[in-house]
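In the previous chapter we treated chains in isolation. Here, by contrast, the input contains two separate entities that must be folded as one system, with a combined length of 629 residues.
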Amino acid sequence: MSQYLVRRLIIAIPSLLGISVILFTILALAPGDPFEELATNPAIPPEVRANLRASLGLDDPIHERYFAWLLAMLQGNWGYSFVSRIPVADLILQRLPTTLLVIGLSQVLALVIALPVGVYAAMRPYSIFDQIANTLAFIGFSLPTFFTGLLFILLFSIYLDWLPFVYRTDLQSTGWKWWGDQIRQSIMPIAVLGLFQGAAWVRFVRSAVLDVIRLDHVTTARAKGIPEGRVINRHVVRNAMIPVVTLVALQMPIVFSGAIVTEQIFRVPGIGSLLISAILANDTPVIMAVTFVTAFLVIAFNLLADILYGWLDPRISYR
Amino acid sequence: MAGSIPASATASTAVPGRPRIGPWGEAWRRFRKHRLAVVCAVILFTLVFAVLAGPFIWRVPIDEIDFTQRLQGPSWEHPLGTDDLGQDLLARILYGGRISLAVGFAAMLVAISVGVLIGAVAGMAGGRVDAALMWLTDLFLALPELPLLLLIIYLFRDSLTGIVGQEMGVFILIVAVIGGFRWMPVARLVRAQFFSLREKEFVEAARALGASRPRLVVRHILPNALGPVIVAATIDVAAAIIAESTLSFLGLGFPPDIPTWGRLLFDAKDNLDFAPHWALFPGLAIFLTVLSINFVGDGLRDALDPRRVK
């Protein structure tokens, strides 16, 4: 198992390097010069500008610039935000826990919906329940997150007035009431993201369970007189989860896209809303860092999926 | 031996009362059995027809400002109501639908072309080329689409709009980038199909007859690999429409004077409490389009799967 883990970690490194090359290429190809502002400033003579450029390594060959940039990124030296003058790394560390919490809880919600519904639908394929679940799943992942978010606000905040539609970090209350307020304002962002994911997963789970439920070992387990619930839990679901884990890992980029939209709608202070405000303010260092961090997180989640994979299917680890 | 002769003779004559149908006719017959898919295909064609022909029938200009008609609900004069400048929402939704659907189809074409090309090269070449291309595919699958889309549009928007004009520049950029991030599933599908098809007897036969490599690919392998690609293409249109709407919804897609569906939602989201119709209609338009495309894709999946016998 540990050998398998190490191998997966080593495979993840080229992917990260590949992503860093892509990001750097985009940045290097982009028009515009960071010294544009200085060039139009008559108080700074051209020689000073040229010296500055040389001292910052802007005239070096492209591969040297790439390695210098990569080294700086790896050392956590991500520069300063143009707008707030705070180190970018601090800014991201401030925002990251909120995003991870929203994404994590929404994934849990998606799992809580998708697993029972998908398994039950696969146990009775083409029944009324299956058809309703399938139609609802289609509706669920055809509703874009930004529209679901607006519909939720319209229904729960404006008509029913049950939930607040702005996520606040400066809640005045303390103790139990603080927890209550915190939960109330988190329900909608998490539900929007979780329902969207859950709808997609229902179909994954259903088709995976349908594939496993017809296998001989399931028939054998039933023939031995094991109760149906136990057959499903012990013999079907665990095996069906193997392909589902892969599909879920492949969905991670979509989850992050959804998180950016959700954070923007409900004004959740995570890295998604940080990215949008940075783009609107032309804050390049922050934009770069957030993009890199999301790419890194996607790879980290893929790695996690690989580990889960090895646990679900022990045969994989030995290969 | 003797018994096999009459058997082959009856097989070659068509069964009376049942006309011969080709593979496409067979696919159509199976598609019709998926009732929801047929209903959704009708809805989809209606929507496409509406956005194409609608502006010629409903001739209200999209940018006529009338402050006496601000934020009105649906009425006979404005069937879908008006926005905060008194502009007619029906006209704006019809116009925006053209852009949204055009982006969806164009981005799908980009994604399918790149995907088929990479998948075909990997599937035919095998070996090291295949390994390298698949590594690239896996790398792109791990890229976070939306942040990169935002980054690229942020960096390149101004220079491209300087060359080809604002509307066209953003259109090209959005189509290229959305298409450029969606080719991976198609490449994998095509590669897998190529691997199994190139070992089949009919390909062997064509090769034995002296068919060149390009001819083998274009005439014999590609047409047989097309079914799953068509299904993926359908789903890609829906995904591209959602991606474009998301960009516009974040205020970072098309410029403000072009009312794409996402842009209408972006403008409407701060007026939800007193003009809900403004957000509901464009949102419903996106939802209906995406839902019907997804169901049509589901129907096509059943119809184009040759292993399915019904």
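The mean pLDDT of chain A is 82. Residues 2-62 of chain A form one domain. Compare these points with the single-chain example from earlier in the chapter.
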